[in-house]
Design brief:
The chain has one domain: 3-Layer(aba) Sandwich (Rossmann fold). The two termini are 28 Å apart. Helix 3 runs parallel beside helix 5. The longest helix has 18 residues. It has a 5-stranded parallel sheet. A two-stranded antiparallel ribbon has the order 1-2. It is built from 5 helices and 7 strands. The model has no long low-confidence stretch (mean pLDDT 93). The radius of gyration is 16 Å and the shape is globular. Helices cover 30% and strands 14% of the residues.
């Protein structure tokens, strides 16, 4: 685990407290390179520096697009509050709940939308959105735990993508960094939302 790194997007304790680095007992070949160690109880621990670096990359990539051209999807209920808050603050489109296939590919659907990039909270339950993005040829950013496959994904953000605290912190950081990159806020202190706004009580 990295020493207390002043370059981190949030203090290291905040990362550790949210459990953002605690993976599952199962690890896929692709996610191996993000794993720092395996705990005695068999859970994999993700490398905090990799998480931080990839979050930065994701925020920079998202910021290249106007909010109405970005779609964030979370089928997992633990992420609903966080993605809604992200959408509310930044103006990006979001989908909390089961994403029905075709929203990006079928103009006849009532909820059809055209976007240029998709971020999913988990590439497995959100695979309909990943497949849609693939069909229309737009990049996909995915939050991936140690048990995720990462084929079809353009940018993997390694993290615990199941816990409420972890998902809340991830979207809190992404929203703040997106807004800074877009010049909507100048510095961290201008970000008025709190972590609690993104996490379930």
């Amino acid at each position: 685990m990295a020493e207390n790194n002043p370059e981190f997007l949030v203090p290291q304790e905040q990362y550790l407290k949210s459990g953002i680095h605690i993976g599952t007992k199962f690890r896929t070949r692709y996610m191996n390179k993000f794993i720092y160690k395996t705990r005695p109880d068999g859970l994999s621990v993700l490398n905090l520096q990799e998480i931080d670096e990839r979050l930065r990359l994701a925020a920079n990539l998202l910021a290249q697009y106007d909010p109405e051209r970005v779609l964030i999807v979370s089928r997992r209920e633990n992420g609903w509050k966080a993605v809604k808050k992200f959408g509310e603050l930044t103006g990006v489109k979001f989908f909390a709940g089961r994403y029905p296939p075709g929203i990006l590919t079928n103009p006849n659907l009532k909820n059809f939308m055209e976007v240029d990039i998709v971020l999913v909270a988990d590439s497995w339950p959100d695979r309909n959105a990943v497949d849609d993005a693939l069909k229309v040829g737009i990049p996909v950013i995915a939050l991936c735990d140690t048990n995720n496959q990462s084929n079809k994904i353009d940018l993997v953000v390694p993290c615990n993508n199941k816990g409420k605290k972890s998902l809340g912190l991830l979207f809190y950081i992404l929203a703040r960094e997106y807004m800074k990159n877009k010049d909507l806020i100048k510095k961290d202190e201008d970000f008025k939302a709190t972590l609690e706004d993104f996490t379930e009580e």
